């Protein structure tokens, strides 16, 4: 175990605001080959053409209608080796979607057994700059913001650090950052603008063509997104989940939906996509009288 991990084990405690946990819902995919960057340049919203070794890019795979199939975090190890962190269940569908395109690419995409950990509020142990990763031994560290980062353990089957927070604490932190994740029940449901991907850098509007680019760019330059992200919490008994439709009392048609959920302290923390002023109009799931509350 590295000195950094030993230090973590010595100072980390189980609290509401700091700690680490293994993210078993995440998977690392390995894209290898001389066409790795070119392949992702033509298939994602991120600009891989300008990426250098050591860079970290966030982006999305979309279908021809501009709907998001998967979000990802990519570490550029080299021009011919890129690691992609995705939701594990979503990645299985994505790999099937990409097979026809990979047939014409000099690159291969394979899942790994590597472990992914999320770390919250480690202060001085935050190891590297934003949009960059550090690689020490078998551990890659990716900084997400000043207080959140991920550890990717490459090929390690033992000596992983102990968990001090639950995955729901990590999901809540992601929700509070407005980091929208596509889950299995929401694959192909949202445009990037619904998830604020056009505002947080997941969509590069200066790169060339990619799958879904025409529709995404048209909305950006000529239209106005009808829905945006909102953070809320919910104290009722209805089991909210990704994709749950939300309504106002005056409308029979859904005006939004739940994107992500975290259950902490018997309260559900929600990331929603909804119409403007949706929360102030009174949002709830169908058949449930408990209104969602803004933070």
Topology:
Elements: H1 3-11, E1 19-22, E2 26-32, H2 36-43, E3 56-62, E4 68-78, E5 81-87, H3 88-102, E6 108-111, E7 115-120, E8 133-136, E9 139-145, E10 148-153, H4 167-176, H5 213-222, E11 227-234, E12 245-247, E13 256-264, E14 267-275, H6 278-281, E15 284-285, E16 293-294
Antiparallel strand pairs: 1-7, 2-5, 2-6, 3-4, 4-5, 7-10, 8-9, 9-10, 11-14, 11-16, 12-13, 12-15, 13-14
Task: Note down, in words, how this protein is organized.
- The N and C termini lie far apart (40 Å).
- The chain has a 6-stranded antiparallel β-sheet.
- Helices cover 19% and strands 33% of the residues.
- The protein is α+β, with helices and mostly antiparallel strands and 295 residues long.
- It is built from 6 helices and 16 strands.
- Residues 1-15 have low confidence and may be disordered.
